[in-house]
Hints:
Largest interface: A-B, 55 and 60 residues
Helix content of chain A: 40-55%
Number of domains of chain A: 3
Oligomer: heterodimer
Amino acid sequence: xxxxxxxxxxxxxxxxxxEERELSKVDKNxxxxxxxxxxxxxxxKRRRSRRMMVAIAAGAAAILLALxxxxxxxxxxxxxxxxxxxxxxxxxxxQVGPSATRDxxxxxxxxxxxxxxxxxxxxxxxxxxGEVTLEKGNVTLSVPHRADSDWKVLAGPYKxxxxxxxxxxxxxxxxxxxxxxxxxGSVMVTGPLLEKGQSVTSRRSLSANLHTSSVxxxxxxxxxxxxxxxxxxxxxxxxxxxxxxxxxxKRNSHSSTSKHSKRHGAKxxxxxxxxxxxxEADKSGTSWVEKLDSGDYSSVASEIQRIxxxxxxxxxxxxxxxxxxNAARLAGDYNTARAVxxxxxxxxxxxxxxxxxxxxxxxxxxxxxxxxxxxAKWFNIYLSEQKGGTLHREVLGRLMETQYKAQMRTEAMKTxxxxxxxxxxxxxxxxxxxxxxx
Amino acid sequence: xxxxxxxxxxxxxxxDDASLVEGLRAGHVGAGTAFYNRYVTHVQRIVTRVMGVDAxxxxxxxxVFFQSLKSIHTLNDPQLLKAWVTRIAVFTSRKWxxxxxxxxxxxxxxxxxxxxxxxxxxxxxxxxxxxxxxDIINKMPTEERIVFSLRYLExxxxxxxxxxxxxxxxxxxxxxxxxxxxxxxxxxxxxxxAARLEASEKWRNR
Lengths: 438, 206
């Protein structure tokens, strides 16, 4: 900030923050519907300025004439076409009552049927590609196979992607229960418990429940029908394959339980095979996860020492690794913490967890170990991997302090310069100026 | 539209800005909605920086998006979509401010738009001072107000301000110097700000 303005730095920042707070209360969805409404009224909108047009016409008829001639050559005022799905406008919300269905037939042959007590909407972004948002209930899709088809059904946190198939999606938001029944073709389901994606092929049914953290694949019942979709008459024995698949799903759902249950406000519980071993090995009767949750970090650190890192980290999610690393760090076991963080960075390079691990290593080196050169290295890595983000400003300030304390004067000045360019009002701005003036 | 429609999560146009621009040029409503969803926060922030928290924010935002849709064909490089939208937001805010100034000589507010009298005792001191700062900014000449807001509230670089406002760098610098001088002069004579600065000074010297 320029010299004469420094005195007002805090006041200006407060003003910006208070206005941002006010702005966050604005209902953006309300604005969206207003905008969509505006687009649909676009051809009429110009009529509203008739009064102004009359005034202009009275004052400058010649100019208006010239404009009209110019505009005739363009489609500037041409009415915009709103894509229609039969009698249904794009984005229009659909609600189907009891004992009723709602069909949406598209030009490319895609048929969508919202079943009774369902709600959602359909959008088609470009030809043969689109999305169906299912708020609740069930919807069936029959998508003709094309090389460029790309349809998705969004149901709660799940995404069902499809290129050409007939299938049904059921979503019950209260029970957090998803069912995908595939009659023909195949779909790919991604979401909680299925982070890596699960393919569901013809005549199979996938069900996932977030409350019980269970995922199950079963053969589709031959007598099962959904709207116009019926079981394909080819006999395929999927039983053995499904059994194998269910074992895999069970493992996967266990390993991702931690992440999704946290998202749903549930307690962070079991984390797979490695964890089961660990829990069994704990004679005190309290698992290390419970200790982790209760903030008993020194006990967690002791557990890590007792059980060893490898079995604990086996089959657990990177989120849990990060928590383990933090527990060890806060318990003062820096070597273990570093081992966990470094392993996390090796195993999940390029992920957000790896970047966060770099930040924690930087903080550990700075706050606890006073190893400033090491801290500067990790803060630099964090900043190079995390472009922007909420912590960017703080880490940049920390990096400047760290470099200064590590006697890296040139680097510190460069960072100070960068800080002032990016955040002239930031909390480290005064310190950055001091550094540059020294 | 039924009332429950607000519960449905708006769908996002998954592609990058280039595809979005292509969709907008094709006049696709899906792209229009996605464009709105992607930039509404940014646009409202820029408008608020320049105009403050405004009762007509919703209308101004819609105007920005409408102008953007109308002139999307003039955007040469789709990668610069955000900068281009920022520019339209600033230009629209400028238009709005000027329109208000023109109509300000005779102003009758409808009964439901008359601002409530605010009891000063109810507001904390910091809020007084921040409000006083906003009042000063709003009293500045339009161009200076825009430059000042973008520099000190949005923290934009001077070269970006020049691009956004359509000035030369030299003009932007000159305007910035002038608005700083004006702000300082007005702030010094404002009792709320003076009291706040004095309190801060005492605290610092404690």
